[in-house]
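Summary for the steering committee. The consortium agreed at its last meeting that each partner would contribute one worked example illustrating the joint modelling workflow. Our contribution is presented below. We chose a case with several input lines so that the handling of multiple components could be demonstrated. No manual editing was applied between input and output; the record is shown as generated.
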Amino acid sequence: MKSRLTCGIVVIGLLSLSISIGLAGEMGFKVRWVKPDTQWLLRIQPTNSDGTLITERTIDPNSPALKDKKLIQVLDPVGGKPIEFEIKPFASTRKLRFIELTLPKVKDAKKVSITIDGLLLEDALGQRIAHSNAATADAPTASSADMGPTTIDTSGVKQNFLSLLAGSADGAILSGKVIGTFGKVTAFAGNDIFLRGKATADLNVKGSDARDYFNSIVGEFDAFVERNYETFFTGPGMGELGLRTKIESDQKFKTIDGTLGLAAWFSVKNGFTDFVNRVTYFSDPQRHASIAPVVALGYDYVSQFENGSGTSAPVESTGRNRLSGKLDWPLEIARGWDLRRTPLAALYDIDLIIDVTPIYDIKEGKFFVENKLSLEITPASDKNKASFVLTYANGKATPTFQNVDTILAGLKLPF
Amino acid sequence: MASRDEIQKAVLEELKFVPFDKPTLNSPFNDFWKQVNDQDERTGRGVRRVDIFLLHLKAALGPFDVSRDDLIDGSFAKVSNLIDEIEGN
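What follows is the complete predicted structure of the assembly.
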């Protein structure tokens, strides 16, 4: 049963990826809304056939489309009506990476369809590049956070995902995360104070025993300040320091803890992890820039609201004071793994994600460590497509601290 | 508008705080911001480092036409390409 479920998930993933990726065949354009100042612009940039952006200057500034606006059409896909636009002025002395359109009568970004004729693309040798002429732009999620005198555009700031996994645990596993940042709310002593909410869940949704996987749902709300720092131990970085409150529950909501505490988020730049990052990377080193591990350290005061029984019962006694940490260390394994001649028909990236969450209970003097080691295979060209995930999960998670030791495989679906 | 030297100095200084492992003009750049952004998202960072990076640069150099998506999508193969873009070449 378990192996069938695993195979089923993988086959469905392969099929969906093949279908979605297989539709891409020729060079085209990525069109997206950008807001460099106060007005939304439509940016049109050439892409390879796999959807990756072409970063070289390829657009001929003498293209007919840039002299005669009628060769570009912007349409409202709902009513099919054309939308007026102006081509943003550009330097005509060099080829362009992209062109931008201003839409004076459109107040807010929305989904539009575009046809592009007469836009000439050339490679580095001056050879013409053929391309498709149809593209669409989706409306971004418009929001912003003020910080000091400038505004941070937080549109598109999200990585909500749901993982559907199966393996050595009994049944099917769901793992997911939703994050929302509410932006700056006030300032105190020269520091901007931000608010953030997030929720994570690790559940066994189909199986005889909920304790076959981390039986944990956590909702968190933070207020924090943002600061650049540079110390001997951590190197330079951009840190966050703040208050956090959490609700931790098992999946039946029978055991529920509430916490209130302090937390600091920072990166740890060091020669050892840089060396390991370089050693474990097998693709073109000219494309590789390793990143530092990130650590979150905190103190939490714990109130136990509910204590369940059966599968919801905590298996460890704990006190009211905890120190906690989180380590996130991503290792790039490969970039642009070419599977275009396989049914997957795309370039893939491979990453190994080391995720360690230790908790030290001060009263009991015990360490509880939750580890996840995940190999993620992700389509390089579209971050919105499903990834394949192989995860080794081990350790104990709040609030039940039941020990888990399992290997799972499945799909990670962004939303 | 800032000079190329000023832009270069500001970019390399700000990259140091992300932190960037090889802050030179020829350092590969196209994949870096995607990794950083993914890490920020996994760890629930409240304000993304890509936003802070652009915010500080724009505060130091004045407005320029580079967005978060440009960086995350890998529009600049090397650090020098970003400096070219800010300079307006």
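Residues 2-22 of chain A form the longest helix (21 residues). Residues 26 and 302 of chain A are 57 Å apart (CA to CA).
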